[in-house]
Amino acid sequence: MRRFDELPLDPVILKGIHKMGFREMTPIQIEAVPLLLEGRDIIGQAQTGTGKTAAFSIPMLAKVDINNPATQGLVIAPTRELANQIAAHIRGIAKYTETRVMCFHGGGKFERQMGLLRYPSHIVVGTPGRLLDLIRTRALDLGKVKTAVIDEADKMLEMGFMREMRNILSQLPFVRQTSLWSATITDDILEISTRYMRHPRRVMVSKDEIAQENVEQYVLEVSDEDRISSLYRILNEIEVDRGFIFCNTRERVEEVSDALKKEGYLVEALHGGFTQNERDQALTKLQKRQVRFLVSTDVASRGLDIKGITHIINYEVPEDPEVYFHRIGRTARIGEIGEAITLVSDREVDYLQDIKEMTNTEMKKREFS
Asked: pLDDT (tens digit, 9 = 90+) per residue, 311-356?
């Protein structure tokens, strides 16, 4: 099966899927959705942008009984931004159903969120800390959950949410369906799966698929001395809707952002040192096209799913090949076309070679006048 309309889904769910513009399934959806519809637990290894949110959302919606006001689906996400994006995605698919989807995270007022739970919430999406707060005050009851999802589990562990995650999972019924999603599968993640999942099947996107076939990938050879002037030449030549300029450190993000602003380019900085409010403001500016680029670190961009990103510029080559593929995954979201341009100096050639060896990625040399 390659098309959504070949799946045994309620017509109102299919109508929402089509409204979202989805017709053919992505590789991870082809593997995961039938298994989840069968009720199997799965560990999904996939990068952001491969369609994993729809892969776990559609089967979850298919199992909701709208006549039962209890919370029946739970999604745990590491960050506020990701939780909001997942909730919006599920609401889009559920547009023609009567399923109520609620999102809870630390950025919202606790009392207001408690009040919202007085109404039926068939599916709850949230960050670990806020979910635990709602559980402890008895505002949120997870005793009837049929389907649980842990998204970006690797990020969850990086941020120190292991204890919170275990506490939340311990509140769920023993008989349930659980799926865990992560870009990388570590021993800690396998330990979670052994403890909280039932004979999970592992599905993954192959390395060739990670290579992002819809992204044209280019390399521009530079020296460290002319790196910033090379960036100016790129920005003067390409036609951009919206994009990211990735740097390896916060200090470099500030340096590049300040230099570009002085030259009149419409950019904003984004890194882990920003407050939540500052991050929200930068993202809003990009979404509203008040700026053309966010100059960002990898940490700050994790979990962001912004439509219409046409260009990724790697101002520096990341030392970890997987980081490169995560970066270029910001563009060419499902069905779209994107362009990635990487500036590489002599000292970064080895890093670039590691990226090329990870997949059969073709990177063309490119010049800018």
From this structure: 999 999 988 776 787 788 777 665 567 899 999 999 999 888 888 8
What architecture (CATH level 2) is domain 4-205? 3-Layer(aba) Sandwich (3.40)
CB-side exposure of 233: number of CA atoms within 13 Å? 14
Q: Report the distance separating Cα 153 and Cα 186, nearest Å.
A: 10
C-alpha span between 293 and 80 (Å, rounded): 21
Spatial distance between the Cα atoms of 331 and 334, rounded to a whole number of angstroms? 9
In this chain, the answer to whether the domains covering 4-205 and 210-365 adopt an identical fold is yes
**pLDDT tens readout for residues 222-240:** 999 999 999 999 999 998 8
Q: Which CATH architecture has domain 210-365?
A: 3-Layer(aba) Sandwich (3.40)
d(CA 81, CA 201): 28
In the chain, where are the structural domains located? 4-205, 210-365
- Distance between CA 152 and CA 334 in Å, rounded? 18
pLDDT digits (tens, 9 = 90+) for 58-107: 999 999 999 999 999 999 999 988 898 899 999 999 999 999 999 999 87
Cβ atoms 151, 77 nearer than 8 A: yes
Cα 101 from Cα 230, distance rounded (Å): 46
Answering whether pTM is above 0.90, one says: no
